[in-house]
């Protein structure tokens, strides 16, 4: 049966259809034609005590070998005590995945998010931003994303609605508009300082992502036009008829260039010729490739180069259409920006009203600076998700260096489970909780 609804009926209608078609509740008993999926759904969609792997209402820390029982004060409301076994920093997709796994493990935790609304970075993307994959391949642990009711892959707005519904579904303890400013040692615990107070935790999961730290390369010259980064771009309308330079040969650069093609006078600049992935490759395939690479490296096999070996740009429909229409004509990188626009090494010049830098991001890890764990490359050495020099700290969702495809919705669940399992086990060292 086709469970998709016509466009315009909204996320809530899709949500109802997702539950009501083929799945019937009677108490806590569920029935479905797909028995394999039935078992997964029953385990994760509100199974009562004793069903599934762990009971959701299990007392925090009960019976776990690597955990200690929380102090009586720690069982009080987080708003009063400021104390938890685990503090998760960031309430986007990685933070929610961590929260789900911590809840299933029966740990006492809180999620601190600087954003006032749900959705993480997805609520800040450009208007035409979409997933690389169908909804069925874009799921956080426990609950699949409901089908997108419109044509094509799910939009950023659909993802935001899914994330908002997810955190409500599992009643995750999220404190919004609370920005973590520093994490430091406080005896055997962590002190997590925020702009509204201080938290005490035995372990920290950092899930702040990269969106909040855009990378802008240094470029000589005195350009007087508009300078923007991917994070500043919303749509092509404001650039209609203008001379616009887009810099970057990755997914953001290709998608924004395709968005502007035919609307603005586009110049697309990349350091090397664009490398498109095969047209049939989507996010699910990329996750599988990244996972196989990690497994190969862990077993001493040759490095397959993973996703980077296939290409840099996923040929989503908008990019494919612009490419095939000849609208994505690339130029080599310019040498400098003068007041009027880019200048190439051969002296060629081009006027620009705006330059949009799609030059990527860096991990947003400034709050961890007091721990002095970062290397000269700005990363924290990890074993899986665990910081090598601080086993009570885990990093989620920053890229392949914190787990295969961990910066994607489909990939972050696996690394979140591994992080929580490691916390329960004591991180391979002493029991840490």
What would your notes on this structure say?
With 433 residues, the chain is α/β, with parallel strands linked by helices. It has 2 domains: 61-212 and 362-425, FAD/NAD(P)-binding domain, CATH 3.50.50.60; 230-357, FAD/NAD(P)-binding domain (3-Layer(bba) Sandwich). 24% of the residues lie in helices and 18% in strands. The chain is built from 9 helices and 18 strands. It has helices spanning 10-20, 35-44, 78-81, 93-105, 156-169, 251-260, 283-298, 317-324, 409-425; strands spanning 24-26, 29-31, 83-89, 109-112, 174-175, 180-186, 189-194, 198-206, 226-229, 243-247, 265-270, 330-332, 336-337, 342-343, 354-357, 382-383, 386-387, 390-395. Strands 3, 4, 5, 6, 7, 8, 16, 17 and 18 form a 9-stranded mixed sheet that branches. A 5-stranded parallel sheet has the order 9-15-10-11-12, with helices on one face. Strands 1-2 form a two-stranded antiparallel sheet. Strand 6 and strand 7 (189-194) form a beta hairpin. Helix 4 runs parallel beside helix 9 (409-425). The chain is globular, with a radius of gyration of 23 Å. Mean pLDDT is 80; it is low at 1-67, 69-80 and 428-433. InterPro entries: Auxin_biosynth/cation_transpt (IPR050982), FAD/NAD-bd_sf (IPR036188). Residues 18-65 are annotated as: Disordered. This is Pyridine nucleotide-disulfide oxidoreductase.
């Amino acid at each position: 049966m086709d469970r998709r609804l016509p466009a315009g009926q909204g996320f809530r209608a899709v949500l109802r259809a997702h539950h009501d078609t083929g799945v019937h509740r009677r108490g806590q008993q569920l029935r479905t034609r797909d028995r394999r999926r039935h078992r997964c759904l029953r385990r994760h969609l509100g199974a009562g005590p004793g069903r599934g792997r762990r009971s959701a209402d299990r007392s925090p820390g009960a019976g776990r070998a690597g955990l200690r029982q929380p102090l009586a004060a720690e069982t009080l409301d987080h708003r009063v005590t400021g104390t938890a076994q685990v503090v998760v920093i960031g309430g986007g997709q990685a933070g929610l995945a961590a929260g789900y796994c911590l809840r299933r493990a029966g740990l006492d935790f809180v999620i601190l998010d600087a954003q006032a609304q749900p959705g993480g970075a997805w609520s800040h993307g450009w208007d035409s931003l979409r997933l690389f994959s169908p909804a069925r391949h874009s799921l956080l642990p426990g609950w699949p994303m409901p089908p997108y009711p419109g044509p094509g892959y799910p939009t950023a707005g659909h993802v935001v609605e899914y994330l908002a519904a997810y955190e409500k579904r599992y009643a995750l303890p999220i404190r919004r508009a609370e920005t973590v400013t520093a994490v430091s040692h406080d005896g055997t615990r962590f002190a997590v300082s925020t702009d509204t107070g201080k938290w005490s935790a035995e372990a920290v999961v950092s899930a702040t992502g990269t969106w909040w730290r855009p990378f802008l390369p240094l470029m000589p010259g005195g350009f007087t036009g508009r300078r923007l980064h991917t994070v500043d771009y919303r749509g092509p309308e404001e650039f209609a008829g203008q001379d616009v330079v887009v810099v970057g040969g990755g997914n953001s650069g290709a998608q924004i260039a395709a968005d502007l093609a035919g609307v603005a006078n586009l110049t697309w600049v990349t350091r090397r010729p664009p490398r498109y992935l095969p047209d049939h490759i989507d996010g699910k395939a990329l996750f599988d490739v990244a996972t196989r690479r990690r497994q190969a490296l862990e077993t001493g096999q040759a490095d397959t180069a993973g996703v980077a070996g296939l290409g840099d740009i996923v040929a989503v429909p908008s990019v494919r259409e612009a490419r095939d229409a000849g609208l994505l004509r690339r130029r080599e990188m310019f040498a400098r920006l003068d007041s009027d626009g880019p200048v190439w090494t051969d002296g060629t010049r081009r006027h620009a009203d705006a330059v949009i830098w799609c030059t990527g991001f860096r991990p947003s890890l400034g709050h961890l600076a007091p721990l002095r764990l970062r290397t000269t490359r700005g990363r924290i050495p990890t074993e899986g998700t665990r910081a090598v020099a601080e086993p009570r700290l885990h990093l989620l969702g920053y890229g392949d260096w914190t787990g295969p495809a961990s910066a994607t919705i489909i990939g972050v669940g696996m690394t979140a489970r591994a992080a929580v399992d490691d916390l329960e086990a004591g991180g391979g060292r002493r029991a840490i909780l």
